[in-house]
Design brief:
Blueprint lengths: L29 H33 L7 H28 L9 H19 L4 H29 L5 H25 L3 H14 L2 H6 L15 H6 L9 H22 L1 H9 L4 H17 L2 H11 L3 H20 L3 H28 L7 H29 L2 H19 L8
Length: 428
């Protein structure tokens, strides 16, 4: 998958504690990259099977008689889960930074999160109303974010800077394949319960190659900072004044992901109620597949290209512009063909963004000791849009112009995110 100088050595390498905080210089091999990408993709299966299909179907079943619309119920459930995700990602990233286990800093959290995520998906399958949906989905977010925080932190731990674009590309490819796989499992499994079970099994199985065959770097107890609640909690605040590039990178990711979250939140309802597509569940699957094909055509190529030219910002800028055009296309052309075109454009743009923006994020991390925590703070920019999207989208759809206005707002927000990447100074 990734270009390598030598055969993958992660199985034979002695992951001594002295390496844990060093800036990596040896290129990682195909085996390590493949296993980490599969682990990443399995997390997204566990997230997007519910997000794309299963939660919407449950909300549709439970909304009658509840006093709220299916859109509002779905917004409450996804919003609550996103709040949990917002807190969990930096928390588990910080805990993995401090872990001195014999199995390394990241692996214990990858395993615990995968097991907890599978069990939480099975619990969600038995939900009987709003509050059991909220509890189940919040547990899914809590546990899978523990795994995700550790998986993403493994990249700056092990991958040298000028290979992070290509590794980020493979992680991005795995992400969208996870979205497609989760959507496909949820659609084709044969019911809500079976859909959750299929996603749970895949989420757990996808972690096994990485944790079984690739040893993690250990952190010596002597290097771990002394514990204090005050210091631990204070570490989650990274001043934009002191670390301006980190702040601008965070804002760029937040705005682009907010645009994307707004567009995806009501996709099933958009196809059913606005486009009048005869089989909206199948329509979501078709659009996800179109998006995936276009994303896969750019995600790895863009990452490798970015590594070779040593530049990140132009890729992030133009990917944001293309994604804004995709949202504008849905607003201007609200038909099934228009939605397919928009999905293709979104895939092209997000493919570039997923790989290169991830590499850019790792380039602006302040400290090696806090890689997991700092990436967790950055990844809040993925979770917070899930909280903000229902708050922004629901009143727009209900009172401020409907779906056309919703997608115009998404386009403007995404374009703003693309522009702000120019404020980052330390990265080409």
């Amino acid at each position: 998958m990734t270009e390598t100088v030598s055969e993958d050595s992660s199985a034979s390498e002695d992951p001594s504690a002295g390496h844990a905080l060093a800036e990596p210089v040896e290129r990682v091999g195909r085996g390590w990259t493949s296993a980490l990408a599969l682990a990443n993709g399995s997390i997204w299966v566990g997230w997007y099977g519910p997000l794309q299909i299963l939660l919407a179907l449950q909300a549709e079943d439970f909304a009658p008689g509840s006093g709220m619309s299916k859109e509002t119920m779905l917004a409450w459930v996804t919003g609550a889960g996103a709040v949990v995700s917002l807190l969990a990602t930096p928390l588990f990233g910080a805990l993995s930074d401090r872990t001195t286990s014999r199995w390394g800093r990241r692996t214990p959290w990858i395993v615990a999160g995968a097991v907890g995520g599978a069990l939480s998906l099975l619990l969600l399958a038995g939900a009987g109303g709003l509050w059991t949906m909220v509890i189940g989905w919040s547990l899914v977010q809590l546990t899978l974010n523990a795994s995700w925080a550790a998986v993403t932190a493994a990249v700056p731990d092990r991958v040298p800077r000028l290979q992070r674009g290509s590794v980020g590309g493979w992680l991005g490819a795995a992400q969208i394949l996870g979205v497609v796989g989760g959507t496909g499992l949820a659609t084709l499994a044969g019911g809500v319960g079976a859909g959750y079970a299929a996603c749970a099994v895949f989420t757990l199985a996808g972690m096994l190659p990485y944790v079984v065959f690739h040893r993690d770097l250990r952190l010596p107890a002597a290097v771990r900072p002394a514990w204090s609640w005050r210091g631990f909690l204070a570490g989650f605040w990274l001043s934009p004044r002191r670390y301006p590039d980190f702040g601008w990178a965070w804002l760029t990711r937040f705005l682009v992901n907010l645009s994307n979250s707004i567009g995806l939140l009501y996709l099933l309802y958009y196809l059913r109620d606005h486009v009048r597509y005869p089989d909206p569940e199948q329509g979501v699957l078709i659009l996800t597949a179109v998006n995936a094909v276009m994303l896969l055509s750019t995600v790895v190529v863009a990452g490798v290209w970015s590594d070779r030219v040593g530049r990140r910002k132009p890729f992030v800028y133009w990917s944001g512009v293309v994604m804004a055009v995709a949202a504008g296309t849905i607003a201007a052309w609200p038909t099934w063909p228009g939605t397919i075109v928009a999905s293709a454009l979104l895939g092209l743009g997000f493919g570039v963004f997923a790989s290169v923006d991830f590499a850019l994020m790792t380039d602006v991390l302040p400290k090696a000791l806090d890689r997991g925590k700092d990436l967790g703070v950055i990844n809040v920019a993925n979770s917070l849009p899930q909280v903000a999207a229902p708050v922004v989208a629901a009143p727009i759809v209900a009172y401020l112009g409907g779906y056309r206005a919703l997608y115009l707002v998404a386009a403007v927000i995404g374009l703003a995110g693309a522009v702000f990447v120019g404020r980052i100074r330390s990265v080409e």
